[in-house]
Amino acid sequence: MEENKNKNKKEDAVTSKASENKKTTGAFATLSRWFKRTFFGGANALYNEMNNGDDEENKDDDIFAVEKIESPGKQRVKAFFQKKLAVGALVVFFAMFLLMLVGPFIYPIDLSYIETSQQNVAPGLNMMSVPKEMKGQIKTISSNSTFSVGLSEDGNVYVWGHTKTLLSDVSKIPEEVKNANIIHVAAGTDHIIAVGDDGKVYGWGQNANGQYGPIPEGNATLGFLYTFAPSDVLNGNLDPAQIKQVVCGKQVSGIVMNDGKFYIWGNHSIGATNLAAVKKYNNVEKLVFTTEYAVLLLKDGTYSTDGTSSFDYTYVDVNGVSTRVKLRDYIEENGRKVVDIGAAGSSAAFVLDDGTVLVSGVCANGENIVPQFAEGEKIVNIMGGQKHYVALTDKGTVYSWGSNTLKQSKVPSGISGVSEIFVGPFQTYAVDAEGDLIDSWGLKGYLMGTDNFGRDIWERIVNGGRLTMTVGAIAVIISSIIGIIVGCLSGYFGGWLDMLLMRIAEVVSAIPFMPFALILSLIVATMGLSEITRIILIMVILGVLSWPGLARLVRGQVLAEREKEFVTAAKAMGVVEWKIAFKHILPNVISIIIVSMTLDFASCMLTESSLSYLGFGVALPRPTWGNMLNGSSNSVVIQNYWWQWLFPAIFLMITTICINIIGDALRDVMDPKSSQGR
Predict the structure, then answer these.
(1) Is 246 helix (H, G, I), strand (E, B) or coil?
(2) Is the model's pTM score more than 0.90?
């Protein structure tokens, strides 16, 4: 009785639904049903209509219950996503692909970029990590190369950044320095100088060229390359109250006294090649070092660059035209005095008493394009980095110009109240009158370090990965096209065509792949072709040499398919032979082709990387993962600069492993004989 009631209720519900459907008939309803059945399947639409959204547990009692039908494609997709390892590999590969696709737009590279001061920097983002102990006590900060040294008001010394080189580690502050009350400190490219309140000069780091003390005995015979530290410096006979400035450069050091006397020593063969010419002066107000020279500001408002003509000329605005003039003549003719100087790389900046800033030397990246200062502002301090300048005015405003490759010239907006600036090659620290750090900007470090040319490994991995994947993908497409055509023709038509094509495949297979690819790549490299043409030819070489395996696979599948009934039916209907082969048989073996292409993609990536690693692939400086590994193929790099080979190897390994896992999973789910793929 109860069952009849339930049955009557269901029949009434169906009747009610049918009457409602009649009311909503029309063009829109018809199009909606067509759309659903076209894109979501007719079986699913029929199932939903007949069951009217009944609960899952009551569907067995439904009088119009229709079993859901899934296509083989959906079944395979379901089977693939049931494999957790394969899904994980797909996610990782997709993330890697997106990174290599979008990354080069976020991290563009300049193929001509070389920065020797940043060679072989270890991974880390601590180049601007001022120790918290210096909070509110910053007295001075000196940066050079890849590290900084700071001095607090209580006389303590702190070092941060990339401090370790092959020969020294400047973070290892000597115990005598820790126990002393330090009043001055300065950083060079590979050493640090500190002066205590007792006049004693301390130094640590690299001293092979006499940067801070007596030249080591082993280097004494090369004394003609170095200027020895004066006895007053070595013996600690300096009056600490008279020390005005301590400054270091590229393996050179200097101390300026209040009375104009100054001391300068170190490697005068590279760090200050005009050292012997300028050391005669005894009225020095300020000393700065470029990468090769010492530049002096004298107390009489003049300057000295004796021993070099690199700073003889500058550019000034004459009636709206930038005109090259002699620097010294221009200053004297206008009756001006030099009140401050700064040095950046191979150029020097001279601040005149009227507020004019003139830049001289080998300028690049806009070092000589001085910004327009606000009216009434006067420069109180100017300092140079590697290829940029930073100026502080009496209003507490900071201006910066020159190279901005590492964001060293990008002054934060809204910065004000600056009392002092400390500028390094790629960092700037702005400090207020209380010794608190207001802000800092510039190079924080490198996520994955740098190579032997100072290039960012992370940026090169991102840009190199796109090229490696592109070469692998294009090579697979070329080899797949050849393999599919040859295999399909050979398997379907058989006979003499099969014999001919398979013998050609055997000949190509018999060629030693790597030696032959090396020979062809070498020939291409010596033809004087453009870089793009060379890359295209490398992709073609890889594709042309790797098709026989796929051709045999396709041939075997076509041989099996051509004996089936649908082929006989197509022939009986008069379908053209090539259409039967490529439009009827080929779609039935496409799943095997997809699996093969997936696995071949990883193989082509590895082959390109192998060619580049051996020096026959894509040429430097354009990066690929392979030639990045090639640049690390020596014992010094492997032992001391592990990041240069480890990170490219990890990216290449992860990508190829993920592709292989995806390919294996596709083979399982597409193989009808595989129990895992059912």
Answers:
(1) strand
(2) no
